[in-house]
Write a structure and sequence with these properties.
Blueprint lengths: L4 E4 L3 E7 L16 E5 L1 H11 L4 E8 L2 H12 L3 E8 L5 E7 L5 E6 L8 H6 L1 H6 L2 E5 L4 H10 L3 E5 L10 H4 L4 E2 L3 H7 L8 H10 L4 E5 L5 E5 L3 E4 L12 H15 L3 H15 L12 H8 L1
Parallel strand pairs: 1-4, 1-8, 2-6, 4-5, 8-9, 9-10, 10-11
Antiparallel strand pairs: 2-3, 6-7, 11-12, 12-13
Helix pairs in contact: 1-9, 9-10, 10-11
Length: about 300
């Protein structure tokens, strides 16, 4: 049976340590014990969608190393179809180095490894999964050529999380394939050639300048801003005291896809997504923190 959601993106092994604060350039700080946690934007979004009850197919690459086996096993445990997650010979798996501050904010450096080898041929091989999925989820921790190929083959709605934001912007032919663009404030600014994060008022104008059907701007603790041709609506997030904000944005995207598969409109989908994102911040780690639907109700109501 075809998966409801196809995710094209990265799978990384996260190396996480807690610090009082992230170091300045040239500075060394002491951290807590090192934890190894499955992560990667694509894999995180796939896992949260699966834990919310959706059938999910993951399309990407891992290395032929111990980390790759860990990542494959983690996805399989959540019932995700990994038949299009290619094991890349002679290449290490992607790794993310994550420092988590005492206030829950983090700093992340990603070594893409096998993720950088994902190409259009891999996407063509997964064409049936993409054409039959109700929603295709894309991010930018894999080559843009693969992302564009996936958007073209997608048979359902296309959600693009433009993270990390490319310095030269997104190709217009990619944006033309996107149904819902999901940047944060900084990513929206970078896509529009503006310095620094933008406030919600300015974000509306920038979002409407982008050539895609709808934009949902994530605002962290402030929730999200839904902008399309007919709607501008701020969706507040539940008030929580975060433990770790790693993967909160990925949870938002996975939950948005879940709600769109269910048939909710975009504003209602964003209301669900901010709750799932908030619940994710209440536990440490990337995939270890991703909640089920029942846990979201328990954690944030």
């Amino acid at each position: 049976m075809s998966a409801e959601i196809a995710v094209v993106g990265s799978a990384n092994l996260d190396l996480v340590t807690e610090v009082a604060r992230v170091p300045l350039v040239g500075e060394t700080v002491l951290g807590g014990d090192l934890r190894r946690v499955p992560g990667g934007k694509g894999a995180n979004q796939a896992v949260v969608a699966a834990r919310l009850g959706r059938s999910v197919a993951m399309i990407g690459r891992v290395g032929d190393d111990e980390a790759g086996a860990v990542l494959l096993n983690a996805l399989s445990r959540d019932g995700i179809d990994t038949s299009h997650l290619v094991v890349t010979q002679g290449v290490p798996s992607g790794v993310a180095l994550i420092s988590v501050q005492a206030d829950g904010d983090n700093a992340i450096v990603v070594s893409p490894g096998a993720n950088s080898r994902l190409g259009p041929a891999d996407i063509t091989n997964a064409g049936v999964a993409l054409s039959s999925a109700a929603v295709t989820l894309l991010q930018l921790e894999v080559p843009i050529e693969a992302v564009l190929a996936a958007a073209r083959l997608a048979g359902g709605k296309v959600i693009l999380n433009p993270a990390p934001a490319p310095p030269d912007g997104l190709p217009l032919d990619l944006l033309a394939q996107v149904d819902v663009l999901v940047p944060n404030q900084t990513e929206l600014a970078e896509l529009c050639g503006v310095s620094g994060a933008v406030d919600p008022v300015r974000a509306v104008g920038l979002a409407r300048d982008l050539p895609c059907d709808a934009v949902v701007v994530t605002l962290g603790a402030e929730g999200a801003l839904v902008v399309d041709s007919d709607t501008v609506e701020h969706v507040p997030a539940p008030v929580v005291v975060p433990v770790d904000t790693t993967a909160a944005g990925d949870s938002f995207c996975g939950a948005l896809a879940d709600a769109l598969v269910e048939g909710r409109n975009l504003v209602d989908a964003a209301r669900w997504a901010v709750r799932v994102g908030a619940a994710t911040t209440l536990r440490a780690g990337a995939q270890t923190s991703l909640p089920t639907a029942a846990e979201v109700k328990t954690l944030v109501g």
